[in-house]
Amino acid sequence: MDQLHAFLADVRPWHWFALAAVLVGLEIISTTFYFLWPGMAAALVGLTLYVFPELGVNSQLILFAVLAVVLTGLWKRYAPASWTTTEPHPTLNRRAAQYEGRRARVAVNFSGGRGAILIDDTRWSAMTADGSDLAAGETVEVIGADGTVLTVKKAG
Question: Which of 134, 129, 100 is nearest to 117 (CA)?
Answer without folding.
Answer: 134
